[in-house]
Design brief:
The chain has two helices and no strands. By secondary structure, it is an all-alpha fold. The protein is rod-shaped, with a radius of gyration of 24 Å.
């Protein structure tokens, strides 16, 4: 019963779970931002490229 009590109160694995959740949130934000900016950046570069080739 004593080992069960120590297992229940042990918080050493909690840090790993918190870091995993933070990493997942950061990855979702980064991927969303890259997808949002990526599409707009492609349009801007295409527009600039076509205006340079014109004359």
């Amino acid at each position: 019963m004593n080992w069960m009590s120590s297992l229940w109160t042990d918080e050493s694995g909690q840090d790993v779970a918190e870091y995993a959740v933070m990493l997942a949130v950061i990855l979702v934000i980064v991927i969303g931002t890259v997808r949002l900016i990526g599409g707009n950046a492609n349009k801007v570069f295409s527009s600039v490229g076509s205006s340079l080739v014109g004359p």
